[in-house]
Amino acid sequence: MPNQGNVQTETKVKFYVMQDERFVDLNLYQFGWERNDSMHQFGPAIRNHFLFHYILSGKGKLETSGQTFFLGPGQGFLLCPGQISTYYADRDDPWVYTWVEFDGMRARECMTLAGLSEQQPVYSPRCENQVGRFMLNLVDHPDVAPIRIIGLGLILLDEIVQTSKTKIGAGSRRLRDFYIKEAMSFIDLNYQRDLSVEEIAAACGLNRSYFGKLFKETMGHSPQQYLIQYRMTKAAELLKSTRIPVGEVGKSVGYENQLHFSRAFKNTYGISPSQYRSKYYFHTAP
Fold it and tell me: What CATH class has 171-284?
């Protein structure tokens, strides 16, 4: 079985870094647990993915987006991609928390449903919940199959959504969700060919301008950004699991021009398709 990550354990912290990137709807990058010292500070720092902390005990303070939040046991806080934040453990009662870093096609949608965002990062439960238990379950069982870890991650996101005090009511989102699901389904069926935002909008029965606004408000990305990311994710899967020539990989995700494909891939992953294959192919191939 391929090595999926490394468990690191110290007296006050343990975490797991997941190295498998094959999952599109949700991907976990790391998760862990930490007992902080008095006044321990992290940041200012900027995140590349979503990062959710859940406070098991103790207290602390979060500073982000020009706001300050004082937090305690049973609460959590979300940091979004590109968001600068600093957080501190309390002087007299430093917090113990568990965290999970994640991203994926459904990540923004789930956090929006929970009513969490850059401006409203605090999770407060409206009822008894199992968020902490689910997160500790990830930390305590890091060696299970990646697909099971992703399954636990999806259950965790749903628990956050369902128990959040700021959860957005289903009725107010029903029509919007319908359009977004239609768009994502259309992209999934047609990403392999030349595809425009106008065509996606038309498939949903909306004009381009309104569709673009609706999509970005829901997903946190423009339709064009989502389409590129979706194609690059599919391309990465092919590069890691097959020996199909790079040019054919590009064509299979909608790029007739190999140069354009290589440029888009490097903008997404920071390395060329060939370099990506050299780095990951032998780790995941059967």
Answer: mainly alpha
